[in-house]
From TrEMBL:
Localization, UniProt: Membrane
Name this protein carries in UniProt: Holin
InterPro entries xrefs: Holin (IPR006479)
TM helices/strands, residue ranges: 12-32, 44-60
Keywords, in A-Z order: Membrane, Transmembrane, Transmembrane helix
Top-level taxonomy: Bacteria, Bacillati, Bacillota, Bacilli, Bacillales
Signal peptide: none
Keyword Methyltransferase: no
Originating organism: Jeotgalibacillus soli
Pfam families assigned: Holin_SPP1 (PF04688)
GO cellular component: membrane
Keyword Transmembrane helix: yes
Amino acid sequence: MEERARIDTPTIIRTTILLLALINTTLQLMGYKVLPLTPENVETFLTIVLNVAAALAAWWKDNDIRRSTIVKKKKAGLRK
């Protein structure tokens, strides 16, 4: 019986942070104040920093999202 391939926890966390950052930016561009800060310059700066950090963290590492990639790496011994 073939073992079921699963996405690892760090990949899920990094991808979730990236999605939250993108949602935050979208809401801000639509005029909603997501962060409870009053000066708009600080809010914009924090949103940019959040997006850049999330994007770098999410995709800097080798994220194995597709099941075929996970199975191939497991067979090659590159993944636990």
